[in-house]
Amino acid sequence: MQDPRNPRPPSGLAWRWAVIGLAVVGTAVAFGYAGGWLAPDRLSPKKIINVLQANSGLHPGYRRNHAKGICVGGRFESSGQLAPFSEAKLFAQGISTPVVGRFAIPGGNPQAPDSSAPIRSFALRFDMADGEQWRTGMNAMPVFPVSTPKDFYDLNVATAPDPATGKPNPDKAKAFFGSHPETGPFLAWISKAKPPASYVDETYLSLNAFYLVDKAGQRHAVRWQVAAETPSTGDGGPAAGDTDYLAADLQKRLAAGPARWHLQFVFANDGDPIDDASKIWPDDRKVVDAGTIVIDSWQPQADGPCRDVNYDPAILPHGMAISGDPLIVARSAAYAESYLRRTSEEGHLPGTERPKEAQP
Ligand code: HEM
After folding, report:
1. In a domain? residue 2
2. Is residue 66 in contact with ligand 1, taking CB distance under 6 Å?
3. I need a labelling partner for 22 at 20 to 30 A (CA). Which of 7, 118, 181, 308 fits?
4. Ligand 1 within 6 A of 124 CB?
5. Same domain, yes or no, for 213 and 335?
6. Distance between CA atoms of 63 and 70, rounded to whole angstroms?
7. pLDDT tens digit string along 283-300?
8. What's the pLDDT tens digit per position in 12-50?
């Protein structure tokens, strides 16, 4: 019998079982944490997508935000002017890089009228010759309403349609905006926003700041914008009763020839907020014109090449890097969740009798 005053160390076999047991328990805890089961109040990509889905209704196969859109194709022709600030190869002089793009309007309802929001978006995937990619999603507005993913979630909860009226409860929305003064610049802009009745005449902004990284490893904080070569008329005037004028206008404009935008990088001054998309930078900042985006084709999104693209803003080429803005990584995680849901439902999309991967 073992002497209790002098316990024998556990055998090697017992130690091994203990280590295996700890590894199993540790893995289960890690899964529980990542899945949000251990902390149901923690904000997760699933919760963000659930609230977007609840607000717009379920539309299988479509993006959970910016659901109504159209695929476009073309190229980016570099001016070479950005090359001193970023070693990304697509910015070298004379380089032409193919792009897969998508114009859209915000909201999760793919049948929403084009006038349902005064905001349009432009997403681009640059496919570089060596296989590297840059993906970006930009909105035609000067500033984002909030600074953090939690506030984005709370904003969506506060503006959820009231089941009784089908519209947001004005008291809840007012309470949210009242307790979030950072929404002021966005509210001031949207109360007067009059977008043109065309995707082509808009200027689209990254809103989040990122870093360019030059050959010496020096970082330069920037935001970018894709500025229309055709100045915006700002009349906001589609034909009466027309709810799908943006795609129709785009098709008409492209039939007449390619549409062009300038990819401009705006450089932060010392002290400008890098990690907060709810703050506008003064408009006298240095701007470098990196080149021209040329769009010359379109396809419906149901089976066009943009359908299965996740325009994840954290996918950057060597020579660009994310900033500490918490929205960027939250967007990356939420877009992945939206992508997983919509691509598993694609057979539901009108015009796709069978999912794309099942076609011969
Ligand atoms: C935490 C903040 C945000 C969340 C949770 C969010 C969520 C989403 C989701 C779920 C999608 C659909 C993604 C897909 O299925 O492919 C989407 C699309 C998009 N978002 Fe955001 N978003 C956020 C902030 C922003 C910001 C700051 C911008 C700045 C410009 C932006 C621009 C866009 C654009 C352009 C698209 C459409 C991309 C496409 O055409 O596929 N979003 N967003």
Report:
1. no
2. yes
3. 7
4. no
5. yes
6. 12
7. 999 999 999 999 999 999
8. 778 788 878 778 777 766 666 655 656 667 899 999 999
